[in-house]
Specification:
Largest sheet of chain A: 8 strands, antiparallel
Distance between the termini of chain A: 55 Å
Low-confidence stretches of chain A: none
Strand order of the largest sheet of chain A: 15-14-11-6-5-19-20-21
Oligomer: homodimer
Largest interface: A-B, 44 and 44 residues
Chain lengths: 421, 421
C-alpha cells in the first residue's frame, strides 16, 4: 500500500476544492466587483482551465450576461519562435486587441489570470522577443489605456500551473511543486480564511488609510538607501498615492490586483537620480532578469546592467524614450504576507507585493490629481511618464531605508529596515 | 504482460503521427492555401489542441506572419446554460466577431477546426439554445459574409475529440472510439496516401469537371424521388454549380471544406415544392435532430416534423422568414469515400459529403453568376435566399433518384440509386 504523504496529495483534498472555489468567489466578488448583467472578458493560459471554469461559473451565478475567455497556448507561442519567418516578429493581432477595447467600451469587465511559465522564452533570441513585445504592446495600447485609466472594473488573479511551479521549485516532484505554489497563492489571496470577502474588505481599508497618510505628507521626493542602492525619486507634481481598490469610471468598485499589498504613486520622470539594485529576479515576458543595477541622471537611465538577462533588459529600455524613465514607485512593508512566506514567485503580481518596487515606463494617470481629465501634455508637465512598456521590478528588502523629503528639503524616516516607521 | 491489441493503440503509432502531420500539411497546403506572410485566424475546441499545434507549426513553416487560435471550452458553454440568468441567452460577443471581420479585411486567412460534441446541448432548454444561436448568428454575420463571399481563403478541417468519438461509438472504450474516429477522418481527408496534396489536386479536378457538366445542362429544376421524398427543387436564375476549390477575391486558391465530395448550387427560394425526408440525423448546435420530414409549398416550409429534436427544428425554422426556405442544394454520389465507410459522423462536414443534401437559410452568392457584384435585391430577384442561418441536412441515399428538368419541362435522369448516371 502506498502512503499518501506527499505534498501533492493536497491537490485531491476537499480543502483544495474549498480554496479554489473561494479564489473564484473573491476574484468575482471582491476583486472584479462584477455587476449583474455585465459582460466579462477573461484571459488565461490553457493550464489555468480549472480556475477559468470556477470563475466562469461564479460569474454566471452573479448574473454575467456573457463570459468569453481568450486562451493562450504557450507551446504555440514557442512554435512561433522556432519556426516563424522574419515577418512574424513584428506582427501582432491588433484586431483582437481592438475587439477587446470595443468590449470594454460596451461595458465589459476584464479579468486576467496570470500563471505563465516564467522561463518560457529564456532560450529565444532576445532581439526577437523584444520585437514581439514591442509590436504586442503597441497593438494592445488602446485596450490597455481603458484599463489603466480605470474606465472599467478589472482585476488580475493567479492560477498555479505546472511550468510556473517547476520554475519555482525545480527540485520537487511536479505534483508537490504545484501543491506548494497553490498554497502560496491561496495564502496571498486570503482564500484560506473563514470569510474571504470580509478579509479583503478589511485589508483594503488598511491600504486606503496608508495611502491617505502619504497623501497628507505630500513628499517632494523619496530617498531609498540600502546595499547597492542610493536613489532619490522625485514625485510628480499633484501626485496621488493609491492602494487597494478603486471605483472605476463605470461606477463599479474593484481591487485590480489579487494579491495586493502595495501603496503606489507617480514619480517625476525628470527628477530621479542615483543608483538602484534589484532585490529579486524579474520575470519579464518569459525571461528571467537578475541582479539589475541601474544609474539614473535627471530621470533617465544612463547606465544599466544585470548579472543575468542583461540583453533583454537593454532591449527593454530601448523600446522608446519613456522606457528608460520611471512611471511608478511603490512601498510595501517587508512583513507583508507574501514576503513572510519566503517564496520567490517569479511573477510580478506576487513579487511586487513582497517588496518596495519601481516601474520603468508608462505612468498611471490615476496617480495624478484629476489625471484622467488632463491632456497628455498636461500630464507630462506634471512629470508623468509615457511609454509602450510598464515593467515593475523589486528594490525593497529588510535592509532598505526610505526617507521622505519635503519641498523645503527636510527629511524624515518613512521606512526602516523595510518596515513602516 | 498486457497485450496491445486494442484499436486505441493506433493513437500511439508512428502511422498516427504521420497521418496527423499529413492532415496539418493538407489543411495549410491544399485546403487553406496559406500565402507566405499571411496572418491566420484559427478556431478550435480545447480538445483539438494536438491538431492546433501541428497546424500552427505548419503555418509558421510556410511563412505565416501570425497564427491566433480562439479556443472554445465546451464545459464553459454548459456552465452558461446551467447557471446563467435570463440576460445571457440573448447575448453574443459581437466585439470578437467584429475583430475577426477586421482581421479578414486586413488580409488574414481563416481555418476552423470542427470536432464538437454532437450532443453537448441536447439536455438544455431548446428555447434557450435557439435564443443563443440567434444572437450568435446575428453577431457573426458580418464576419461570416466575408467568408461566404470568398473574400478570403478559408477552410474547415476536423479533429477527433473524445466527446465526438463517444457520440459516434457509445459502446467502445474511449481510446478505441477515438482511434476509430481518427481513422475515419484520415481516410476522408486523404491523409493516408503517398502524396496527400497531389491526391487532393486530382480529386479537386474531378469535382470541377462534374460542376462544369451540370453548368452546361442549365437545369430549371431537380426532382428528388425516394422513400418519403418527392421534391421538386427549382434552381435560381443564373445559378452556378460549384465544387472543390475556388480562387478567393484575395487571389488565393483554397478548398473550403476538407473533406469535400459535393457539387452544390443555389435553388430558387420561391420554387421548391413537395415533401422531403432526411436520410441521416442532423447534429445542430449540440442537439441531434432525426427523421426530419418537411413539406414545401412555393418555396416555403408549410409543415415540419421530426422523430427526435422536433422542437429544436421548429425553433430553427422560426429564426426568420428565410429560415424556412432553401439556400443550397448539393449532389453527392452514394459511392463517395465517406458514404463507403458506413460511418455516421454526426457532423455536417462529413455527413453532408456522404449524401445529397439541402440547406435551409442563407444562399451562397458565389453560386449565382456574378453574384458578388449583385445587390441584395438583385440576388433576391434571381431567387437567392437570405437568412441568419445556413443548416445542411441529408436527403440522399442509395434509394434516391434525381432527375434534371429543363426549362421546356423535359426530364432526364441525373442520378439513379444514389449514383451519377
Amino acid at each position: 500500500m502506498m502512503a499518501m504523504s506527499s505534498q501533492g496529495a493536497f491537490l485531491h483534498t476537499p480543502e483544495f476544492e474549498h480554496n479554489l472555489n473561494n479564489l473564484a468567489a473573491v476574484a468575482i466578488g471582491a476583486g472584479l466587483g462584477l455587476a449583474p448583467g455585465q459582460e466579462l472578458v477573461m484571459t488565461a493560459t490553457l493550464d489555468a482551465l480549472s480556475l477559468v471554469r470556477r470563475i466562469t461559473e461564479q460569474a454566471y451565478k452573479v448574473g454575467a450576461s456573457l463570459v468569453t475567455t481568450l486562451f493562450t497556448d504557450e507551446a504555440s507561442t514557442l512554435l512561433r519562435y522556432r519556426h516563424g519567418t522574419e515577418a512574424t516578429f513584428d506582427a501582432a493581432s491588433g484586431w483582437l486587441y481592438e475587439g477587446m477595447a470595443q468590449a470594454y467600451k460596451n461595458g465589459a469587465a476584464r479579468l486576467a489570470i496570470t500563471g505563465n511559465d516564467p522561463s518560457l522564452l529564456s532560450k529565444e533570441d532576445p532581439a526577437k522577443v523584444s520585437r514581439v513585445n514591442r509590436a504586442t504592446s503597441k497593438a494592445y495600447r488602446p485596450a490597455l489605456e481603458l484599463i489603466t485609466r480605470h474606465d472599467i472594473n478589472w482585476t488580475i488573479v493567479a492560477c498555479a500551473t505546472p511550468a510556473w511551479a517547476k520554475a519555482m521549485f525545480p527540485d520537487l516532484a511536479a505534483d508537490d511543486a504545484l501543491a506548494k505554489l497553490w498554497q502560496g497563492i491561496f495564502a496571498a489571496s486570503r482564500t484560506n480564511v473563514a470569510d474571504p470577502v470580509a478579509a479583503w474588505k478589511e485589508h483594503d481599508a488598511k491600504l486606503h488609510a496608508r495611502a491617505e497618510w502619504l497623501n497628507n505628507k505630500r513628499y517632494y521626493a523619496l530617498h531609498f538607501k540600502g546595499p547597492g542602492t542610493d536613489l532619490r525619486v522625485g514625485m510628480a507634481d499633484d501626485h496621488l498615492w493609491l492602494g487597494g481598490g478603486t471605483t472605476a469610471h463605470n461606477g463599479l468598485y474593484c481591487i485590480p490586483n489579487m494579491p495586493t499589498e502595495e501603496v503606489f504613486s507617480t514619480p517625476h520622470k525628470d527628477r530621479v537620480d542615483g543608483t538602484v539594485t534589484s532585490t529579486k529576479p524579474l520575470s519579464h515576458m518569459g525571461t528571467l532578469i537578475e541582479g539589475i543595477c541601474v544609474r539614473f541622471e535627471g530621470g533617465r537611465i544612463v547606465d544599466a546592467k544585470a548579472t543575468r538577462g542583461g540583453e533583454v533588459l537593454q532591449k527593454m529600455i530601448e523600446t522608446d524614450e519613456g522606457a528608460r524613465r520611471l512611471g511608478e514607485v511603490a512601498l510595501v512593508p517587508h512583513s507583508s504576507p507574501i514576503a513572510s512566506s519566503g517564496l520567490l514567485f517569479l511573477n510580478t503580481l506576487f513579487d511586487e507585493n513582497a517588496a518596495c518596487h519601481i516601474a520603468l515606463g508608462q505612468a498611471y494617470s490615476t496617480c495624478v490629481k484629476d489625471g484622467n481629465s488632463l491632456t497628455p501634455e498636461q500630464l507630462a508637465a506634471r512629470g508623468a511618464n509615457t511609454s509602450l512598456i510598464h515593467v515593475d521590478w523589486m528594490i525593497g528588502s529588510n535592509k532598505i531605508d526610505v526617507d521622505g523629503i519635503s519641498a523645503s528639503g527636510a527629511s524624515e524616516p518613512v521606512m526602516r529596515a523595510g518596515e513602516w516607521v
